[in-house]
Each structure stands twice: as structure tokens, then as C-alpha cells.
Amino acid sequence: MKRPIVITREFEFDAAHNLKNYDGDCSNLHGHRYKLEVSVLGYVGEEKYLAIDFKDLKSLGKELILDKLDHQYLNEVLDFNTSCEKLAYWIWERLEGKFIEYDCELYEIKLWETPKSYVTLNRNIMNEGL
Ligand SMILES: Nc1nc2c(c(=O)[nH]1)N=C([C@H](O)[C@H](O)COP(=O)(O)OP(=O)(O)OP(=O)(O)O)CN2
Ligand SMILES: [Zn+2]
């Protein structure tokens, strides 16, 4: 019997940015230590005892997200206004479909811009437009 389970890995990266068309101090150059949580939906079975190896989840996150964003000026490496919301969509699109070989799918991401402010994207929101 295949039993569903959600597997999560946390990442952190440092980046600088400034918001465009923003009336306030966030239009000035400043930096964040972003925290990212990536959750995938997988399965455990009689013989399949790892849904996805934590190490594989870590490698994919590093390769697809951190290698592109860590210690970067986001306005230079991304071609959109780098709000937490837009960044979350960009991360979702880079990760989606990358877990098929593990029989897993992207389930949810949370992205903290500051220790107290974060955004969430998940499969329900993406499917239902909720
Ligand atoms: N909905 C969003 N609002 C804001 C975003 C965003 O991405 N989405 N981003 C910013 C700024 O980039 C800023 O860095 C964050 O601002 P703020 O919440 O003021 O951060 P602080 O932690 O420094 O604020 P405190 O009130 O001191 O905790 C702004 N808004
Ligand atoms: Zn900011």
C-alpha cells in the first residue's frame, strides 16, 4: 500500500534587492537573509521506505534555487520586481516537475523575507487559483 507523506527541507540564502515602484524605504538597496521551506508530496510503501532522500531534496534546492540567488543582487539576476510574492512564484516554477523521478510532486513552499513576514504557495492555490 502506498501511503502519502509530505517531506520538507529548509534553506537559507542571503540576497540584496530594492523594490521598484514602491513608496517607502524598501525602494532603497537593502538585504535579507531569506528562509525557504520546500515541501514535496511523496509516498512510502512496503519496500519504498524513503519517499525522497533528504539529501536529494537538499541537492535540488541548492542547484535550482540557492546557486542562482545566494549572495546576489536580485534586481540584476531576476527580470521582475523582486517582492516576496513574485520570488515565490519564480521558485515554484523552477521546482515544479523536478521531483517526478522520485515519484514526488511539489506540494508547498514558504518564503520568509524577514523573520516575521513570509508568503506561502501550495498545490491548492496553484490548482484552484485560491
Ligand atoms: N507584501 C509584501 N510587502 C512588502 C514586501 C514584499 O515582498 N511583499 N517587501 C518589503 C521590503 O522588501 C522590506 O524588506 C520588508 O519590509 P518590512 O516588513 O518593513 O521589514 P522589517 O522586518 O525591517 O520591518 P519591521 O517592521 O522592522 O519588522 C516591504 N513590504
Ligand atoms: Zn526587502
From TrEMBL:
Record key words, sorted: Lyase, Metal-binding, Queuosine biosynthesis, Zinc
A Pfam family assignment: PTPS
Cofactor note: Binds 1 zinc ion per subunit.
Entry GO MF terms: 6-carboxytetrahydropterin synthase activity; metal ion binding
Cofactor(s) essential for the protein: Zn(2+)
Coiled coil: none
Binding site for Zn(2+): H17, H30, H32
GO biological process entries: tRNA queuosine(34) biosynthetic process
E.C. number: 4.-.-.-
Active-site residues annotated for this sequence: C26, H71, E113
Pathway this chain belongs to: Purine metabolism; 7-cyano-7-deazaguanine biosynthesis
Catalysed reactions, semicolon-separated: 7,8-dihydroneopterin 3'-triphosphate + H2O = 6-carboxy-5,6,7,8-tetrahydropterin + triphosphate + acetaldehyde + 2 H(+)
Family: Belongs to the PTPS family. QueD subfamily.
NCBIfam families: queuosine_QueD
Annotated protein name in UniProt: 6-carboxy-5,6,7,8-tetrahydropterin synthase
Naturally occurring in which organism (per UniProt): Selenihalanaerobacter shriftii
